[in-house]
Amino acid sequence: MAQKIIGREHEIKEIEALYQADKPVFAVVYGRRRVGKTFLVRELLGDRLCFYHTGLSPYELKGKKLKELQLSNFYTSLVRYGSDLKQVPSDWLEAFDALIALLEKQETDKRQVVFIDELPWMDTPRSGFVTALEHFWNGWGAGRQNLMLVVCGSATSWISDKLLNNKGGLFDRTTDEIKLRPFTLGECEKYYQANDIVMSKFDQLQCYMATGGIPYYISMLQKGKSLAQNIDRLFFEPNAKLKLEFERLYSSLFTNAEDCMKIVRLLAQKQQGYTRKEIQEQTKLSDGGGLSATLKALEVSDFITSYVKYDYPKREVHFRLTDFYSKFYLTFIDGRKTTNPSFWQDNLLTSSLTAWRGFTFESLCISHLPQIKQALGISGVQTEASPWKSRKEKDGAQIDLVIERADHIDNICEMKFCDDDFVINAGYDKNLRHKLSTFLEETKCKNALHLTLVTTYGLKFNEYAGRVQKVITMEDLFK
To answer: What pTM value is reported for the model?
Structure first.
């Protein structure tokens, strides 16, 4: 069955090993919504499931009797798998007791796989769900050598707080956790090849900048259409699927979706992001633990990333938006009243699209740091990577990425998205010299500096090209 799955080799091995293990397993598979968790588990374990259930989305239910609807839905799944329960359970303790009864009457000498999908959605306010789950695992499941409980959830902050870092009855109870991340460029390329979608690497880069390697989004691409036609169809035509996705995405993941969207909208305005203090001042969100919890929830769900700039104090943490889909939506669609259904095809050569490609290529490179390290031949070397900005010059020198290496070399990385070989002219050469001298003067860096260019096609050789010690192209990013 697993041959239909693109990439995910490591996760497939891990899940198969858990299936073969002679011990009770409580595995958590989590990651950003639409990243392919359900597909992976169902494809791998589908014909081996003894019980499978999916929680109902509170976003779709719009505040109706949530607990009753979730219990009724669970009851339907119990009956489908052979439970002789005669009525909907009155609470979650009763529901899980019915699941225990169902599993006990099944054949017990082989592996029993229970898969509960979108688990966080089932934990509605004051429902007692987590207590009942504790009772199911601690009181029964943990003593069953043949039980494999797999739970999934997109609400990563719930998974983190209630399961992985639980301070109560589920403390340290999960036996394994598997975080599913978006596809890399190389995995996206395998997906396109498997689905007969023909696209140059140059276009695949731009597709990644809009979709971020989220399998569900790239599964909507139609073969036989150009990338520009596909982007218009998914984002700009009336009722385009990904035009309507933004609010649904955040509302289905976060109980305080409005606050999350406020923060994400702010972070979309500035490539290097903002500090916590700046976020609080600009969004006017209350400065208690709530803001820290919201930032943490956005970060564990892979929408934003925290980092400290090179040579800055550790407490000066910046947050930046790293979810490509959100960035694309907020740049081109949010609040804009374009009614042109072929907006992308009609604007390919405009300055706004050129600027977007330049900024977003930088984010794409940072998200493919392992591929950059591989191209530099330093995969095994310990590194710290972060941008740098001059503290002394207003709007002064800045470096896209500094890779500080344990072997006493710093790679000073410049990222350039071009539709041909990049050319260093006299003006840019002067800019580079100024950057490097300011960096050395302000940071007092003792390491050797290697100027590194990460670009699409390559570097055109001229009188200034010799300053660059290493050129990394998009071919390297696909490895």
So the answer is: 0.91
